[in-house]
Amino acid sequence: MVRQFCLIAGLLIATTSAWAVDLPTRKAGLWEMTMEFQGRSKLPVQTMKQCTDAASDKLMTYNFGGSAERDCSKQDVKNSGGTITIDSVCSFGGNTSTSHAVVAGDFNSAYTVEVVSKREGAAPSGQRAYGESHMKIAAKWIGACAGQKPGDIVMSNGRTMNVIEMQKGARPRKP
């Protein structure tokens, strides 16, 4: 379960890096996000709730983009009629990931992110050295944060992490 939590957190950060440029700030409050991994039978649909304010949202989208600036040789962003398309090529730990992401919707109520990534090169432990993955994130604004503080992400397994605390080296909290 801890491994799955770390994997999802890592995917969130990696995906955020891939589309960290020019995204609007989400409406402050509680967002429910559903992540679906197509073509990967080992990863079930994941649902999480994320409490944001302007500062934590900026941290989640732009601060992690610093690694994208260092590690990405290409990051093309196009905004056409409210649909944002991002094409990137990034290298992390001996492998290269080529991603195409489409972000559509309203950052005040609901949006989707669809990402197709191709990985080549050295493989992280337990994964193939190459492969294609498809991920879809559907997010909707629920309302005010109740019992959570800005930066909190509560996973479907009950574990909580806070992106602000993570930057300071804190570990995820158990349910």
How would you describe this structure to a colleague?
This protein is α+β, with helices and mostly antiparallel strands. It has one domain. The protein contains four helices and nine strands; from the N terminus they run αββααβββββββα. The protein has helices at 2-18, 54-63, 65-71, 163-167, and strands spanning 29-38, 46-52, 72-80, 83-92, 95-106, 110-121, 131-143, 152-155, 160-162. The chain has a nine-stranded antiparallel sheet with strand order 3-4-5-6-7-1-2-8-9. A hairpin with a 3-residue loop joins strand 5 (95-106) and strand 6. It is globular. The model is unreliable at 1-20 (pLDDT under 50).
Secondary-structure map:
Layout: H1 2-18, E1 29-38, E2 46-52, H2 54-63, H3 65-71, E3 72-80, E4 83-92, E5 95-106, E6 110-121, E7 131-143, E8 152-155, E9 160-162, H4 163-167
Antiparallel strand pairs: 1-2, 1-7, 2-8, 3-4, 4-5, 5-6, 6-7, 8-9
Widest sheet: strand ordering: 3-4-5-6-7-1-2-8-9
Number of strands: 9
Number of helices: 4
How can the largest sheet be summarized? Answer: 9 strands, antiparallel
The helicity comes to: 10-25%
Which regions are unreliable across 5 or more consecutive residues at pLDDT < 50? 1-20
Overall outline = globular
**Overall pLDDT:** 76
Structural class: alpha+beta
Overall structural domain count: 1
Cα(first) to Cα(last) distance is 12 Å
In terms of DSSP E residues, the strand content is over 45%
- N-to-C order of helices and strands: HEEHHEEEEEEEH
C-alpha-based Rg, rounded: 15 Å
Key structural traits:
single chain; 175 residues; alpha+beta; nine-stranded antiparallel beta sheet; 4 helices; 22% helix; globular
